[in-house]
Amino acid sequence: xxxxxxxxxxxxxxxxxxxxxxxxxxxxxxxxxxxxxxxxxxxxxxxxxxxxxxxxxxxxxxxxxxxxxxxxxxxxxxxxxxx
Length: 83
Description:
A two-stranded antiparallel ribbon has the order 1-2. Strand 1 (about 30-35) and strand 2 (about 40-45) form a beta hairpin. The protein is α+β, with helices and mostly antiparallel strands. The longest helix has 19 residues, at about 65-80. The chain has a single domain, classed as Ribbon (Pemi-like Protein 1, Chain: D), CATH 2.10.260. The chain contains two helices and two strands; from the N terminus they run αββα.
């Protein structure tokens, strides 16, 4: 059995064995579900919050004018081939 103590502020430390088993990291969000006279605890996964900082901004913004010109040129070439 794994135990921890509740502080006067309602805080506790999640024991290392539990953190490892649940693969918890600092700042992870947790879900508590009341079940009878107990509670289950699991990490909140799959939210946008979990993916913060996973996409880095481009070093140089895309030149949308160039993109439009390329698309128009390719469409014109495809139409010319079909004609």
